[in-house]
Amino acid sequence: MKRCYLKAGVALAIAGAGFAHAATELVIATVNNGHMIEMQKLTPFFEKANPDIKLKWVTLEEGTLRQRVTTDIATKGGQFDVMTIGLYEAPIWSKKGWLKPIATDAAYDVDDLLPAIRNGLSTDGKLYAAPFYGESSMLMYRKDLADKAGIKFSDQPTWAEVKAFADKANDPKAGVYGMCLRGKPGWGDNMAFLSTLVNTNGGQWFDMQWKPQIDTKAWKDAITFYVDLMKKDGPPGASANSFNENLALFNEGKCAAWVDATIAASFISDPKQSKVADKVAFAQAPTASTPKGANWLWSWNLAIPASSTKDEAAQKFIKWATSKDYINLVAKETGWASVPTGTRKSTYANPEFQKVAKFAEAEKKAIDSANLTDSTLPKSPYVGVQYAAIPEFQAIGVAVGQQMSAALSGKVTVDQALKTSQTAAEREMKKAGYYK
User: Do 149 and 223 fall within a single domain?
Assistant: First the structure.
């Protein structure tokens, strides 16, 4: 009998040793865009340096990702160890205690992060999500067509100047449309752009008493300008176009001007992707009656849900994926033109990056100038440029986005769209107890 116990003991010891060395599996929820897909391709570099950690990717379309991670974190589901979240979610979730702080060390160099992005991801001085890439918005245009039209843009053009260029450059017979702008409904689609247009026309989402301000002159001026401009100079079916659709149009040489995310600059100036790569130029987002809030601020970030039991491994991965070393790794593997931008000062200071990124100066200036806490001419109670960082905003933004898309396609008038939007926003805010 003794021998049997001994054998059993040895077997248990061996099994225990096996469990002790089993790799920790990190489940990472992310969005299906180019920079994240590149990160997945580089998985072997991380796993080789950390043989005790295995990465499992759950890659989703943006809207689906938001739904899945929001449900999981709110219900403490524990499906994911690392989540890709936006600048919108980070402050809301950290204040609710849903996220673990990011443990940064000297090597990570948190002071190298661009201040606007770092501040947006921090609560009470602690970083709660690490930025993977960041962006603002700016004007991207065909310099050859501007030269032909005799138009020279200043570094900060006005919307009136941009419209004058769009009117002159619009040539549908030649397959060129004067202006490409988002029309697809969604708080992160058409409303990301339209919020900045409203801001620069002197408008806001809510006043200091949290009363919605949609049925106002500033909103009417902005949306009327947008609808008129797109009807005259936009591509057909613009109400279904968002970032990806407009990117494809621009790369095909079909847009004379486009105001959208700065991250597009690296794609439209890449000869492998763009037929007009050698003809593009950049300026700051156009302004109307005020420069406040004319350009948005956004970042995709990696965060750890408070429910995660794999904190140590998750911290290691996040530090790796958002570090200077990671940016250098991407540069080494695919070139400096492909690195994720909008997060670190050191990227913009790198001569190799500057050499290939003719958009670098305009992009960094746009990000640096965006202010999450002061983006409207009248004082506002919310944080955010193209969104209001409150949980109710998603539903409001979606409802308003549908109305603005309907106005663009001519299904309703601008006045009707604004009135319906105001009613929907008031109902949501009253229901949530912001005011009576």
Answer: yes
User: Residue for token digits 């050191």?
Assistant: 346
Question: 211 with 84, same domain?
Answer: no
Place of tokens 């997945």: 40
Domain range enclosing 217: 137-296+378-431
Contacts for 344 with CB less than 8 Å, ≥ 6 apart: 112, 113, 114, 324, 327
**What is the per-residue pLDDT across 263-302, written as a single tens digit (0 to 9) for each?**
999 899 989 899 999 999 999 999 999 999 999 999 999 9
Total domains present in the chain:
2
Alpha-carbon distance of 36 to 59, in angstroms, equals: 9
Q: In this structure, are residues 174 and 240 in contact, taking their beta carbons and an 8 Å threshold?
A: no
Structure confidence at residue 61 as a pLDDT band (50, 70, 90): confident
The Cα 158–Cα 155 span in angstroms is 10
Indicate the pLDDT class of residue 435, thresholds 50, 70 and 90. confident
Which CATH number covers residue 212? 3.40.190.10
Q: Within this chain, do residues 188 and 253 fall inside the same structural domain, yes or no?
A: yes
3-state helix, strand, coil in the chain (%, to 5): 50, 15, 35
* Same domain for 281 and 387: yes
Instruction: Yes or no: say if 271 and 277 are a contact pair by the CB < 8 Å rule.
Output: yes
Q: Per residue in 158-217, pLDDT tens?
A: 999 999 999 999 999 999 999 999 999 999 999 999 999 999 999 999 999 999 999 999
Q: In a 3-state reduction of DSSP, which class is residue 68?
A: helix
